[in-house]
Amino acid sequence: MKKGLVMVVAALAVVAMEKGGEKKKDIWDIDLGDIRVDKELTKGLAGKYRGSVRLALGLICTKEEFEEEKRRVLNRPLP
Amino acid sequence: MEFSDAEIKKLEEITTLYATVKKWMLYAEEIHPEKKTFIQPINEIKNAFDHLMRVFASKLELKSVDAAYITINLDKAFAHIYRAAYDLLDYISIYLRKKISDEINGISPEALTTIFPEYYKEINPYIERISSEIFDLRANRDNPRINDLSKYNKIIERLKSHLDKILEIKPSLIYYEERKKKEVRKSKFLEILIYIAIAIVSGVIGAISYAYF
Predict the structure, then answer these.
(1) Which of A31, A46, B28, B81 reaches 20 to 30 Å from A17, CA-CA?
(2) Whole-prediction pTM value?
């Protein structure tokens, strides 16, 4: 009886380990997320890092800003 | 590290397209009125780099993979660079249109017709027409086709040449406008003088009439 119980527990442990293994995806195959920029934050922290000057000055055009500008430009009739 | 012929061909395609993307990236920063950096293509380049690293990881045996893994990741890297190219071309075309519109803004249709007839004959209709062409090309953004990309590139080159022409002819347009304004001021001044003369003559006639009759 005891032996049977131990075997069941061991089998469950193996299944749990396999499932755990499935969850742990290979690092190479994890996709990177989109770049999100908080301009005010980057400008505020500009003095604390040595990176892109454009970034430090908040001179970045995000996808959302571009789509908005594009809508404006396309709606403006040419002279 | 060894690559098959097909892999080398794909790597060549990625590298060639990247060179073009880099050129457009620099131009995109230049054309923006505030010289801003566009984040979206950087995001695509970052993802392309990630797929290339997966290829190198498998080639350097840091990762065990099946036969299709390298081809899939090279294709994905190419697709990301391709999307970066599209995003940049979209961005450049919009800012070129904006710049052309800004440069022409304030110039009268009369000045444009007289000094720069090409604008209404060719440039204006072309810019209106390409908006729909670009829309059609953008619909294929997720389906890499180099021919579409070169069509888009031709549109950009043509817009650039139109902008160059406008910038070249703008001083003449401004000069024409100034001359026209001066002429209008001069004729208004003459008109006022005539009114004053009429008023004086009328006054004199009135005074003489009053004195004698």
Answers:
(1) A31
(2) 0.78
